[in-house]
Amino acid sequence: MPTPRKILHVDMDAFYASVEQRDDPSLQGRPVVVAWRGARSVVCAASYEARRFGVRSAMPAVRAERLCPQAVFVPPDFSRYKAVSRQVREIFARHTDLIEPLSLDEAYLDVTVTHTGLPTATATAQAIRDAIREETQLTASAGVAPNKFLAKIASDWRKPDGLFVIRPHQVEAFLAPLPVGRLPGVGKVMEQRLQELHIATVADLRTMGAVELEQRFGRWGRRLHELSLGIDESPVEPERPTLQVSSEDTFERDLPLEELEPHIRRLAAKTWEGHGREVERHPGRIARTVVLKLKTSDFRILTRSLTPTEPPASEAALAQLACDLRARVALPEHTRYRLVGVGLSGFSDRDDAAAQRDLFARTDAVDIASD
């Protein structure tokens, strides 16, 4: 039998809010909401003191203020959060090269074999948490398990500042009573469909069996059965190449299409900067597709994409292509827009892009429109 993998999921506790409380002692113990004030702002993070009032990330800031009038609102400072994230990443790298970042504040680590030679994955997780506390004055929660999805569940089990371990022989018993919604990929729609089949827990899911699940849900049904047994062979993937680089902004007031150009050009500059960082990390990769994203005043989302024969070679070229995509928005002139975004996608190796150039040269530029 192959040696079971040892996977950690490390998740910083209320990361942005905790950085703010660390750097400003007057905020400690108080409900802190990291967000810009205003009708269009959303919550980036909330301290545990604010969460007790129901404040959550991605919630409109005005709602957070209604739920917790005494909250202290702090504008986000992503440069500081990124600096702390780099510190934490350096701590991870002392133990393993197999690090898969999910965001600034969480990552998977494969510690089946480590640089430090610590005797167990649990000891490694504790050493990482201790180093984070000592070097950043922040806390992190960690989950230890034989695979990624179990490690992620485990890291949330004793938050904040907790450590939870699921050993291989405990997997099936641990999963059995959990709601099926705790399995990755089971959203509200799938959870409702399963409830209609009288499946509420992972144990219920197992009773249906792989064959019947596959008959009802295709390959996803077989995957559900594997997850119900704790089977997940997906590896920790260090530094996965970026699929898209984008920037977007929500306006103070809704704007007509013809007034969006300065905002598109400003966002194109930010996106081009992000593209440059991706190229530095993965030399030879270039993005071929320009994306314009719009959200109307009634929250309808539209995207317009263009893959030109030659990838944009400068910030100015990206900005112009994004501005030109407005001509392919076929909505009434009186339509107003609350958000605009500019993205670059379709990353590929430069050699692959050159090999396809002749094909695109024989056809019109590909135009994809979706609402």
From TrEMBL:
It comes from the Bacteria. InterPro entries: DNA/RNA_pol_sf, DNA_pol_Y-fam_lit_finger_sf, DNA_pol_Y-fam_little_finger, DNA_polymerase-Y, DNApol_IV, IMS_HHH_1, Rev_trsase/Diguanyl_cyclase, UmuC. It catalyses: DNA(n) + a 2'-deoxyribonucleoside 5'-triphosphate = DNA(n+1) + diphosphate. Its EC number is 2.7.7.7. Keywords: Cytoplasm, DNA damage, DNA repair, DNA replication, DNA-binding, DNA-directed DNA polymerase, Magnesium, Metal-binding, Mutator protein, Nucleotidyltransferase, Transferase. The record marks 16 as: Substrate discrimination. Binds 2 magnesium ions per subunit. Its cofactor is Mg(2+). Gene3D superfamilies: 3.30.70.270, 3.40.1170.60, 5' to 3' exonuclease, C-terminal subdomain (1.10.150.20), DNA polymerase, Y-family, little finger domain (3.30.1490.100). Its main location: cytoplasm. Residues 7-187 form the UmuC domain. The active site is at residue 106. It holds the Pfam family IMS. It is found in: Cytoplasm. Mg(2+) binds at residues 11, 105. One of its GO terms (molecular function) is DNA-directed DNA polymerase activity. Poorly processive, error-prone DNA polymerase involved in untargeted mutagenesis. Copies undamaged DNA at stalled replication forks, which arise in vivo from mismatched or misaligned primer ends. These misaligned primers can be extended by PolIV. Exhibits no 3'-5' exonuclease (proofreading) activity. May be involved in translesional synthesis, in conjunction with the beta clamp from PolIII. Monomer. Belongs to the DNA polymerase type-Y family. This is DNA polymerase IV. It comes from Lysobacter stagni. The gene is dinB.
